[in-house]
Amino acid sequence: MISKAEIRGFDFHCHVDLHPDPVALISQCEHEGIVVLAVTTTPRAWHQNKLWASKSPYVHPAVGLHPEVVGECYSEVVLLEQLISQSRFVGEIGLDGSPQYQAFYEKQKEVFSRALEAAQKHGSRIVTIHSRRAVKDTIALIERHTTRTNVLCILHWFTGSIAEAQRAAQTGCYFSVNAAMLSHQRGRTLIRSIPRDRLLTETDAPFAKVNGRKSVPKDMPDVATELAVIYSEQVSETTTRLFSNARRVWQFAGLDIDQLLSAS
Ligand code: MN
Fold first, then answer.
1. Is 167 exposed, middle or buried (0-12, 13-18, 19+ CB in 10 A)?
2. Residue 260 and residue 156: Cα distance in Å, rounded?
3. How far, in Å, is the centroid of ligand 1 from the Cα of 202?
4. What is the CA 188 to chain-centroid distance, rounded?
5. CB–CB of 85/120 below 8 Å?
6. Cα–ligand 1 centroid distance for 12 (angstroms)
7. DSSP strand E in 17-116: where?
8. How many CA atoms lie within 13 A of 114 on its CB side?
């Protein structure tokens, strides 16, 4: 039996299926007590992700269609809509306004809108969202297609302005922050501007780096420690707040983290 005291942190955006050895990563999450939201980049990857996640109460699979691959995987939007009916966790979805993805930006908007509509229709959905160079449109589509009662949006690795972060917070969004965001002053200033009760932690593994190596879920307690420095408070205070935020978010999708682990 796993005691709830063994939970040491939360990774709200982790590409478990892109890790060289997902099974080893999952057992590391269990060993280190990190509860993970395992995102996917295409709906075709959902089935395998779900199989891996089924092996552990610590790992929760999300179905997504990453904006960077919408050009080649656009036709999978129908499958994405179908699978959102089965999954309370959705992601990675969103928009990317970088020049190399401009050619299919309108398609990105369509896919993102349809995913949000599906999440809204079924309700109790947690969505982890990419918004690089497209924050304004991302927030506009969240406002157009969802309500706070049905969909809880998490902006992952947010790189917009402080004003945009405030706008997103007013819309009801949460923010998952990673080690890379904490490594520069601009990121730390941005994080400080986010309402503390909307803050979550993530790795974006295997993409984000910390100290020259890839960040992994077991780094989450270190991220909490760095956040405590930003807030000039005791680590225990920051950790308690991060736990309370995380518990509230999982609960939105009907998942009681404490019960989940004590029942396993
Ligand atoms: Mn990602």
1. middle
2. 25
3. 10
4. 19
5. no
6. 10
7. 34-38, 59-61, 89-94
8. 20
At 218-234, the pLDDT tens digits run 999 999 999 999 999 99
Amino acid (1-letter code) at residue 185: Q
Rg of the chain in Å (alpha carbons):
17
- The model carries a pTM of 0.96
CB under 8 Å to 165, separation ≥6 — which residues? 158, 175, 190, 193, 194
Is a pLDDT exceeding 60 seen at residue 94? yes
Tokens 């709200």: give the residue: 12
Q: Any bridge partners for residue 205, and if so which?
A: none
Mean pLDDT of the 194-220 span: 94
Three-state DSSP at 46 gives: helix
**pLDDT for 55:** 84
DSSP collapsed to 3 states, 149-203: CCEEEEEECCCCCHHHHHHHHHHCCEEEECHHHHCCHHHHHHHHHCCHHHEEECC
CA–CA separation, 114 and 242 (whole Å): 31
**Residue 151 pLDDT grade (very low, low, confident, very high; cuts 50, 70, 90):** very high
Tell me how far the alpha carbon of residue 1 lies from the centroid of ligand 1, in angstroms: 32
| Residue 174 bridge partners (DSSP) | 154
* Tokens describing residue 257: 């983290």
Place of tokens 């969802």: 146
- Output the CA 225–ligand 1 centroid distance in Å: 23
| 199-201 and 209-210 strand pairing | unpaired
CA of 15 to the centre of ligand 1 (A): 7
178: which 2 tokens? Answer: 């990673």
